[in-house]
Structure formats: C-alpha cells, structure tokens
Amino acid sequence: MDLKKIILSKLKKRKEIRAADIIKRTGFSRAYVDRFFKILQEEGEIALVGKANRARYVYSGKQFLLRAKKGIRNTRIILSNKNLSEDIILEQIKRDTGIFIDIRKNVAEIADYAFLEMLNNAIEHSRSRKIEVSLNRNSRLMKFEIFDAGIGIFRNVMRKRRLKSELEAIQDLIKGKQTTMPRAHSGEGIFFTSKAVDTLIFQSSNKKLIFNNIIGDIFVQDTKRIKGTKVIFTIGLKSKRDLAKIFREFSDRSFEFNKTNVTVKLFKMDTEYISRFRVWKSHHKSASVEYKNADENITFMIKRAQR
C-alpha cells in the first residue's frame, strides 16, 4: 500500500486532512502514519497548520496555507515561564492561526501592543511557572485572555509600593505610570493599553478592575477569589482608535510619558450612564453630600471622585 499516494489523493479531494483520517482509512498506527506525513512535509508536498487536536495538513503553497489558517480563529497555549519571549509567542500565534489575518491596520497595531505588554507583565512580574494564553476572534471583535497563578497584580503593587490595601493598589493602576520595576519599566504599558482597547479587565484576589472605553468608564467589583492574575481585553474589528494618536495625547513634546487624564463616572440610572456629581457640587458649594449603603468598592470610587 502506497501510503504517500493515499495521503495526497485524500488531500486532493478534501483540501485538508488530519492524521486520524488516514489512520481510519488504512488501519495503520499513528506513529507509522505520522512518519509518512513527516516525509511529505520534508519533501515540500504538504504543510501542517494548527496545533494539537486542531492540527491538519494542506498542500504546500501560500494560497493553501492562507485558506486553512483563516479557519483557525481561536487558540489556547500553556507556556512555561522560563526564558519566555512575548514577541516570539505572538509570531507563533500569527504563524499558526488566522486570528490576525485581514484586520485593519489600526486594530492590528493595538492588538499587537496590548498583547505584548500584558504578556510581558505576566512573564516579568507574576513569578508564575506557567502562563495560559487564549485568543479568540469572531465576526465583531478579538478577545485575549492571559492567566498566571502568581503573586497577583494588586498584591504585587501593594507590597512593592508599600500600600495599605489592594484598593490602594488599584488606585495606583488607575492613575497610570505606576510600576513595581522602575529601572526596567516606565509603567506605561497598562496605561496605554487601558486607553487603546475597548475593554481591559484585571482580576486578582477577590477584586476586578474594569476599564470600559465603549462607555468611557472605570469599575471596581468584588468577584470570586482567584490565585494569580487574569487579564482580559477586547478590541472591536471596526475600532477607529489609533495607537499613535493615543501616544501623542498622553506624551509631551519630548515623547516622555507624563500626562494622565482619567474620568470616573459614579453611578448608573436606568440604561444611561451619568457623570454629574462633580458638576452639581461645583454649583452648590454650600451643600453637604452624604452617601449610604456603599460597599468598599463604591466608597473607594466616591472618595476618589471627591478628591
């Protein structure tokens, strides 16, 4: 039985095949079948697209590879955090999937920047042995998740900056320009990412910090306790945000990162988000404002607005 001929014949009919297809057709072991797939790869006849259970073979050639990769719109990778380089991981994802194919230049620039910055944070700050990365793309947006089982972003900031609580650490993160490694980082990665993407979420311990640029708001919520840090961010495929403009907006003429402009809206009425507390207070200077039944997250945001 000419196994190479069977593989190529099957591929001609179906455009892409898996090793399991040939094993089922011939009854041969996986090791034996994989050997012939490897020979055909070395001969330049076929190419492998995808990883693990998503792996399949297509004819070699740019058009065949591109068509196959377009069908791969999600991936999940568990990385060993040893000598890890975020740019190599990004290139690997682009090579093996279609998540970044045919997206607008401005969206691609934001996605690249945000992914590299957030993965770099996990690599250098988390102290986690493993880092889990998930990327998904649908017809509307790209979604990225980076999870580590390390010290936790809020606790790390709290300890390194000698703060009293994780809420104070969250305050530092909202301000921007904060870093636990000042000699190696300016602290701009989180800040610029929080301005560029549609949504950016940091979940650690029992707190969740949410930057929502769709409605222009920032939230702090209680959540289920987790060990480490989960970072989730999304960017719409039709986003008009421009990374270069965001850099210019928050940089001075010497291109130093030195501007911070954060507005926090305080409450929601029906479906409309309201931001009038400070305006009202400015017109009623003699009035005293009291709040009741606020949990620590709401109290934190109110006091921040009052300052």
From TrEMBL:
It comes from the Bacteria. Pfam families: HATPase_c_2. Transmembrane segments: none annotated. Residues 112-207 form the Histidine kinase/HSP90-like ATPase domain. Signal peptide: none annotated. InterPro entries: HATPase_C_sf, HATPase_dom, WH-like_DNA-bd_sf. This is Histidine kinase/HSP90-like ATPase domain-containing protein. It comes from Candidatus Giovannonibacteria bacterium RIFCSPHIGHO2_02_43_16.
